[in-house]
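User: Please predict the structure of the protein below. I'd like the answer in C-alpha cell form so I can feed it into my own downstream comparison script.

Assistant: Understood. Taking the following sequence of 447 residues as input:
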Amino acid sequence: MVASILLAGALVPRLVAQGPITQYGRKPKSDRGPRALGLVQLSPKGNKGRLIPIAIMMDGKFYDAGSYKATPVPMALDFDIVYEGLRTGVSQGIFTITQPGQLNRVWIAEGTWLPAGAKAPEKSKKYSAPVIEDKDAPPVLHRRSEKTAEGGTDSKDKDKDQPKPSTPPAKPPAPETAKAPVPPETAKTSASDEPIEDPNRPRLRRGKPNSNERREPFTTFDALTDTAPGTSSTSSGKADAKAARSPDTLPQIVTIPAISDAGGPDPRPYTYDVKPAEEAIYRNKMFALAAAQLRGRAGAAENGPEPARKKSSSRKSAGKSSALSVPDFDDVSLRIFDLSNSNEPVLVLSAKTRPPAAGAAGSIEEPKEITLIARTNLEGEVQKLFFAQTDSRHLDVAPRMELIDAVDADGDGRGELLFRRTFDGGSAYAIYRVTADGLWPLFEGTP
C-alpha cells in the first residue's frame, strides 16, 4: 500500500511537467494528379460544345494542357475523357470528348454535353423478340436420296473386284506453281505505325467508348459561330438574319469551367451567401478601397521624373480636388467567395472608371479597367490582396484581368481563382491561390 502511494506520488509531477497531450488528426491524402482543368463552351443548342484545355496537374506541378504529352493529341484531349462542368463548385453537367482537333493551330476538342440530372441516351439496340413460325404440318425427317446411295454401293463393289497393282504408279510431274505475290510494304508500315498503349501511363477520368463510332485521330475545326434559327436564303430571310444577328438578340455561348480527375475530392460550393444589405455594405467598402488604390497610383505617377512633374504641374491643382473624391464606376461586378470553407469572405471587384470631363486643353482620359481582390479581417474591414489597373494602351505592360470562376485546380478541396489575362498580342489563362496577404500563382499561361 505504501509502495503504491509512493509510485503515484512520483508519477504525478512528471505528468504535470509534460503538459497537455496534443491530439493529431489524420491529414487527408493530397491529390497528385493527373487532374485536368478546361473551359467548356456550349452552343446555343446545349447538347454539344467544345473544350479549351487550360492546365493539367501531374505530381503536384501544373503544365500547359494544350501541349502536355501531345503524341500528337494532348493527354487532356484524348477520346472519351470525361469533364465535370462546375460553376462556383456546383456540378452543372458532364462533357465527354468525342473528337480532338485544332482551331487556328491551337488544340481543342468537341464533345457532347449532358446536363446535371438528365438521363443519358441509351446507345444499345432495342431487343426484338424472336418470331416462331406456327405450322400445322407434321414433322419431316430428311433422308438421303436413293440415287446417291446406289451409286455409292456400286463403286465400292467395283473397287473390291479389281486386283491391286504390285508397284505403285509413277507420280505425274508436278505443274509449275506461280510464285506467291510479295505483300506490299504498306502493310508492314501500317502495322508498325499503330500506337502502342503504355499500361503505366496515367489516366484521366474516362467514359465508356462506343465501338460503333468511326473516329479520326484529330481534325481541323472551324470557328464557333452563333446562328439564329429561322434564316433562309431569300431576300426577306437575309433581312431577318441581319435583324436576328444583332447583339441584343444573338444567343450567347455559355462558358463553364470543367475538371477531369479519376479520383480527387467531391466538389463543394464556394459561394458566400450574404443578404442584400450586407452586399451593399461590402460594395461601398470595396469602392472606397479601389478609390484609395487609384489615388495611390495617381500620386506615384505624379512623383515621377522631373520632366513629367513639370509637365503635370499646371494640372495638379485642378486634379487634386477631383482625386480626393470617389470616382464613378461602370460595369461593376462584385463576387464573394468562401474558398476555404471557413466562413471568411473573399471579395473580387471588377469595374471601369468613368473618365472625367474634358479639361481646358481638351484632353480626354481613357477609362481604366480595375480588378481588386480583398478579404475581411476580424474587425470586418476589407484588406487588399491584389489590385491591377490597365487600359487599351497599356495591355503590353498590364494585362486585363477577367475573372472566370472559383475552381479547385489542385484537388485539395479549397478553391482557387481562375482568370483570363488579355494582352495586346492575345489572351491566356492563369490560376491563383488566395493566401493570407496576397495571391500565389499556381499556373500562368502564355498567349
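That's the full C-alpha cell string. Residues 155 and 161 are 10 Å apart (CA to CA).
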